Amino acid sequence: MILKDVDELATSDKYQKAGLSAEKQMAFYLKRAFGTEENVLVLNSLRLEKNGDAAQIDLIWLHYTGHTN
Fold it and tell me: How many domains does the chain have?
């Protein structure tokens, strides 16, 4: 189950564009594989902020047993 999709980023930086493209590609494959799977949770582009500092996690993938097979 996809809980959060990739956030769009308006940028002219070629490295940020390449990174966003890779994130979108991975999100596409994860959605195709696990989009309706209730035992898998996917969060894309998670941004955490505290005291003016920020960090972005590109992808978190959780499975209820910790692994898939």
Answer: 1
Is 68 contained in some domain? no
Write out the residue range of the structural domain in which residue 19 sits: 2-63
Which of 4, 46, 44 shows the shortest CA–CA distance to 24?
Answer: 44
pTM over 0.90: no
Number of other residues whose CB lies within 10 A of the CB of residue 58: 15
69: in domain: no
pLDDT digits (tens, 9 = 90+) for 27-67: 999 899 888 888 888 888 888 999 999 998 988 988 887 66
Region of residue 32 (left: phi > 0; alpha: psi -120 to 50; beta: else): alpha
